[in-house]
């Protein structure tokens, strides 16, 4: 495979195309400055404005959220796994019916396998624009987003209505629900009562891994962070490994599923039979199944990356209580 063949499978951080109208809270004060990115797969955007960088099915989706300080992503849920790692900034994640059941603050490199079945949100509590990278289970990303009732109600007050077809309609642009399309129903109290409200102590041990802990653990070989035998034991339809300078190897290897390389720190040289490329933090590279390749730091200094590999596991729920 030549470098020209591989080029469409590489998305550079500086070339990411944001969508500012991706979700129902796009007009809601406090959330109206966020940017959504769909890097690999169809994503979960509710807007036709969303740009997809790589549409090749992988069995999972890769996306990102970029937000200035004090900008918040509203409470929502997915049918499948949602994993975030912090690329830049300082972020507070919170969850529960009203976002008060628990919370955790994450720094660059930290990773969070957010339990499904609970509403979750996040906000940039740093001083600069921040970016978090996302992995969503399944090719269809679980069929969209489920919003907390108050999010849908507040959005309507600011002109945005979500149809039961999963599409947004903006009254500020003169749009309205087409014939045959009804507003997306909100969850009733019985449905809401069935949702767990895990505390911070419930969630942290099995769902959060800290960057510096992973660096220490990956001093000789890569660490499986999320997987059947991972630190965060789960089978969400993909595995996530953490690789550092000390655990990287020039030995060629391949997988029978597509994989994705996502540097967190440092520059990484990826070699394969036919070409080579250097990745920087924020870049995303899709490696085809069965393509032998290697990834090693190309410069001195701190170096770490996350590697995502598809599996045959169903992209199901992660919260087991």
Automatic annotation (TrEMBL):
Pfam families: Cupin_2. InterPro entries: Cupin_2, RmlC-like_jellyroll, RmlC_Cupin_sf. This is Cupin domain-containing protein. Residues 69-132 form the Cupin type-2 domain.
């Amino acid at each position: 495979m030549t470098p020209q063949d591989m080029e469409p499978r590489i998305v550079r951080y500086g070339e990411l195309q944001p969508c500012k109208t991706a979700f129902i809270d796009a007009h809601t004060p406090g959330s109206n400055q966020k940017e959504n990115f769909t890097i690999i797969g169809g994503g979960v955007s509710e807007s036709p404005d969303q740009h997809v960088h790589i549409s090749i099915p992988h069995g999972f989706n890769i996306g990102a959220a970029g937000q200035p300080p004090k900008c918040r992503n509203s409470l929502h849920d997915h049918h499948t796994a949602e994993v975030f790692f912090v690329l830049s900034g300082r972020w507070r994640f919170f969850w529960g019916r009203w976002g008060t059941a628990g919370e955790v603050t994450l720094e660059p490199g930290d990773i969070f396998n957010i339990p499904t079945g609970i509403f979750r949100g996040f906000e940039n509590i740093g001083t600069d624009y921040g970016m978090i990278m996302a992995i969503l289970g399944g090719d269809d990303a679980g069929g969209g987003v489920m919003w907390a009732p108050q999010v849908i109600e507040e959005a309507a007050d600011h002109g945005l209505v979500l149809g039961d077809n999963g599409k947004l309609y903006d009254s500020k642009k003169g749009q309205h629900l087409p014939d045959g399309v009804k507003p997306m129903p909100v969850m009733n109290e019985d449905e809401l009562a069935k949702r767990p409200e895990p505390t911070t102590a419930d969630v942290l041990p099995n769902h959060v891994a800290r960057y510096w802990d992973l660096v220490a653990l990956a001093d000789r070989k890569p660490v499986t962070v999320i997987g059947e035998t991972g630190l965060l034991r789960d089978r969400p339809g993909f595995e996530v490994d953490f690789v550092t300078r000390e655990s990287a190897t020039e030995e060629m290897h391949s997988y029978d599923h597509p994989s994705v390389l996502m540097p967190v720190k440092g520059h990484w040289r990826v070699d394969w039979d036919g070409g080579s490329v250097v990745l920087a933090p924020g870049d995303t590279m899709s490696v085809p199944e069965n393509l032998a390749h290697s990834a090693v730091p190309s410069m001195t200094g701190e170096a770490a990356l996350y590697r995502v590999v598809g599996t045959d596991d169903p992209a199901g729920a992660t919260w087991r209580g």
